[in-house]
């Protein structure tokens, strides 16, 4: 991760994400859903491409409102697949709609998407991957890793000497909680 901590600061797109979002805990379900969908859309592409299209994604998916996206029908799917502002990949669009429906079920069963994540935390990376593959579409090891690091469930978003890391530690991300063997080296 050292390369990101060296290259992102001051960059038009990477800088704000690195300095204010990447690795910080996320409490809002729509924001968690957005992160998952952005990571899915990054598959096979650069993160810079996704960040440049982020505003278009937010508009196309109505602020990543889980309930609205879960209700998308074929007309909405066709609208998304013709939107040049986003990544027009049918598998990724279909996964977004399906995953919104999954998140709705998780909310019904656990109270929130965050509560579902908290319920399973801490898990080793391999177990997180198995859980996500059973639960969601289009989630492989790298997507799961980046989603969990970006939302504070796994460590590693920043080097220990990165100035942002001190702010993340102060925000008490889930990976830093007691009982997590990974957190012991940061306590």
UniProtKB/TrEMBL annotation:
Residues annotated to bind Zn(2+): 5, 18
InterPro entries (alphabetical): Adenine_glyco, DNA-3mA_glycosylase, DNA_glycosylase
Keyword set includes Cell membrane: no
A GO term for molecular function: metal ion binding
Keywords tagged on the record: Metal-binding, Zinc
A Pfam family hit: Adenine_glyco
One BP term from GO: base-excision repair
SUPFAM superfamilies found in the cross-reference section: DNA-glycosylase
Protein name (Swiss-Prot/TrEMBL): DNA-3-methyladenine glycosylase I
Lineage, uppermost ranks: Bacteria, Pseudomonadati, Pseudomonadota, Gammaproteobacteria, Oceanospirillales
């Amino acid at each position: 991760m050292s390369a990101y901590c060296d290259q992102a600061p001051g960059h038009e797109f990477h800088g704000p994400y690195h300095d204010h979002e990447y690795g910080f805990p996320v409490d809002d379900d729509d924001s968690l859903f957005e992160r998952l969908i952005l990571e899915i859309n990054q598959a096979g592409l650069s993160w810079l491409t996704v960040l440049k299209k982020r505003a278009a994604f937010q508009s196309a998916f109505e602020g990543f409102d889980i309930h609205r996206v879960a209700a998308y029908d074929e007309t909405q799917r066709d609208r998304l697949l013709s939107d040049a502002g986003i990544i027009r990949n049918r598998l990724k669009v279909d996964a977004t709609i399906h995953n919104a429906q999954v998140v709705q079920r998780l909310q019904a069963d656990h109270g929130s998407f965050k509560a579902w994540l908290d319920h399973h935390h801490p898990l080793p990376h391999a177990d997180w991957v198995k859980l996500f593959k059973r639960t969601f579409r289009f989630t492989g090891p790298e997507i799961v890793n980046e989603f969990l690091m970006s939302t504070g469930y796994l460590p590693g978003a920043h080097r220990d000497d990165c100035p942002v890391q001190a702010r993340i530690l102060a925000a008490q991300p889930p990976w830093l909680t007691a009982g997590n063997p990974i957190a012991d080296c940061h306590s």
